[in-house]
Amino acid sequence: MTETVRGVRLGVDVGQVRVGVARSDPHGVLATPLVTLARDLTAAEDAVPGDMAELVALIAEHECVEVVVGLPVNLSGQHGPAARNVKAYADRLAEVITPVPVTLTDERMSTVVASRRLAERGVRGKRQRAVVDQAAAVEILQSWLDAQRRRTR
After folding, report:
1. At what angle do helices 125-152 and 110-120 cross, to 10 degrees?
2. What is the pLDDT of residues 66-114, one digit of tens each?
3. If you ran DSSP here, which 8-state letter would residue 85 be given?
4. If residue 38 lies in a helix (H) or strand (E), which one and from where to where?
5. Considering all CA atoms of the chain, what is the largest pairwise distance in Å, rounded to the nearest integer?
6. What whole-number distance in Å separates Cα of residue 117 and Cα of residue 123?
């Protein structure tokens, strides 16, 4: 279904402290960095965490048709604690943003690749930490978009 629906998608890199967000163009060709959100780990069980509320606002603002969340699968293909945490986050986000679908995609090495690309551009240290989550979200979303295009050719 996703490959036929045109529209903006958000790419999300869920970290322990921050959530990197990227967006695609409506044609699903290019992912660009959008924002880095602080994780809200203090929200009550029955409350919507602040970072998810900000995602809801971004989804509305950009009229998103789907949210693509990077799943940090181990290099061996196993789902470790980080993957379980992201899956729980994605499940909760799906409840909050319904009917907009949430898709999980393998994001092995996205942060490593993003860090390397930033370093190649001379972005290091504190400046890199400030944008690496967005860059990782771009890597996640761009990989997913490219895979969707390959699948529909």
Report:
1. 120
2. 999 999 987 777 888 889 999 999 999 999 999 999 999 988 666 666 6
3. H
4. strand 31-38
5. 45
6. 9
Beta strand pairing call for 31-38 and 18-24: antiparallel
The residue written with tokens 């924002």 in the block is 35
Question: From CA 85, how far away is CA 93, in angstroms rounded?
Answer: 12
Confidence grade of residue 3 (pLDDT, cut at 50, 70, 90): very low
Count of residues for the chain? Answer: 153
Q: Are 52 and 93 in contact (CB under 8 A)?
A: yes
What is the distance between the alpha carbons of residues 4 and 68, in angstroms, rounded to a whole number? Answer: 16
Q: Burial, 48: exposed, middle or buried (Cβ in 10 Å; 0-12, 13-18, 19+)? A: middle
- Rounded to two decimals, what is the model's pTM? 0.87
